[in-house]
Amino acid sequence: MSASMRDDLLAAGLFVFDRVGFEAATVAAIRAKAHASNGSFFHVFGSKKELAGALFLEVLRDYHAAVLAALVPVPDAEQGIDRLIRGHLDWVVSSRREARYLFEISRSEWGEDVRDAQRAQNARLAEGIERWRAPLVAGGELLPMTPVTFISQLIGPAQIFCRAFLSGRDRADPRSEADTLVACAIRALRPPDRINKQ
Prior knowledge:
This is TetR/AcrR family transcriptional regulator. The chain is built from nine helices and no strands. It is mainly α and 198 residues long.
C-alpha cells in the first residue's frame, strides 16, 4: 500500500475527528473522505483507534518540530523564551485542526498503544530544549528548575489562551497576547538582575 494512501487516510481521519469527535467518527466516514476502499483502510490500519494513534504521533512530531525550529540558530535566554512562546502560538493558529486534535480531541484511553512512541518523541523534544537551556542555567542566565517546571512556566500560560481559542470559547487570536506572555515568562524564568531592560 502506498505511503500516499496512508497519508490520505490520516488527513481524512483528522478532518472527520475534527468535525464530529473521535467517538462519533466512523471508519466509513474516514474511508469516504479519503476515497479509500474498506480493504485499503484495513490494509493500512487495523482500526479507527490505530489510525487515531498514528495520527496523534504525526501531529505531535509536527508540533515538536515547530517548537525546536524556534531554537535555530541558538538564541540567548530572552530570545529563546520569546521564540519558543511565539513558535507555540504560531503553530496552534496556523495548524488549528492539528492543534485541536492534539490538545482537545486526543484521549489517553485510546493512546495506550502509542504511549512508548509518544514518550520517545517527548524525550527528543525535552533533549532539544535542554541542549539550549542547560548552558544558560549553568551561566546564571536562566533560573535553575526542573525541565518540567521550566516548560510549565514557559508554555502553560500560553496554553490557557490556546485552549480557549481551540475550543471556540474565545475567538481572539492567542498571538495577540504574545508580548505579555513573553514578558511574564521572562520574569518567571530569568534571574531579576539578568532581565534586559528595554
